[in-house]
Amino acid sequence: MSKLDQIAESLMKGKANDVKALVEQVLKEGENPGKILNDGLLKGMSVIGERFKKNEVYVPEVLIAARAMKAGMQILQPKLTSAGVKPIGIAVIGTVKGDLHDIGKNLVGMMLEGGGFKVVDIGIDADPQKFIDAAKTNNASIIGVSALLTTTMTNMKAVVDALKASPLAGKVKIMIGGAPVTQAFCDEIGANGYAPDAASAADLAKKISG
Ligand code: B1M
User: Fold this and answer.
1) Taking a C-beta distance cutoff of 8 angstroms, is the pair 121, 109 a contact?
2) If you measure from the C-alpha of residue 97 to the centroid of ligand 1, how many angstroms do you get, rounded to a whole number?
3) 114-157: per-residue pLDDT in tens?
4) Domain boundaries along the sequence of the chain
């Protein structure tokens, strides 16, 4: 098995220390940082994403794999930056106003990072304007809004409306998700896309922000 495959395998098993050590080793051996990212870390993370979608692995496995991904990224990030490897996009994510649930949103953030996005997480209970301001400041291409309560999902429309009223209208896309959210609701409020789970969110973000 190649060292890059070993990175992917260790990441899938959530072995953060092994991932870190292997990334350090292949960098020392002169491997290209972009290749380490794509053929090692992202390869492993996308397998986990697919398995998660099929219910072959569950939230804990994804969190552990994402932690291993982060460990590898800590070593790789400075090299990627100096090698000029750019993120495929910038995503602002947050949980809607009035809502304190963040486990799903954090998973979405990890899968987006795993998918090559730079993620700016504005946290929970976020005002509509906070999403817009963060998108503007960070030059984001996508805003991801999460809601877990039937009483707060309606606040997602305020984010869509705030974007429409801002100079970012048409340039930045809004993706929504969370247990009570549906495609029909997404269509109703005029968001650009709905994803039922974190792995689909990463796929959708690539599709709509391109
Ligand atoms: Co709350 N809670 N909670 N809670 N809580 C639910 C959501 C609930 C369904 C429980 C129940 O009654 N059966 C219910 C909502 C009922 C409803 O509205 N229909 C509920 C309630 C009522 C409440 C309170 C009102 C309880 C009270 O105080 N009386 C209160 C509200 C506080 C507030 O937000 N203002 C409350 C509080 C809490 C805790 C603080 C205790 C805690 C949150 C801790 C935290 O997040 N840091 C909590 C928890 C843990 C839950 C449950 C048990 C688990 C939620 C979770 O993390 N799931 C939940 C019941 C349940 O779901 N079984 C419940 C795991 C997570 C990975 O899944 O978030 O769905 P999920 O994310 C998925 C997808 O939805 C999707 O991807 C993720 C991964 O696949 N996804 C996106 C999520 N965001 C996305 C964004 C995207 C795309 C996909 O694009 C941007």
Assistant:
1) yes
2) 14
3) 788 999 999 999 999 999 999 999 999 999 999 999 999 999 99
4) 3-82, 89-209
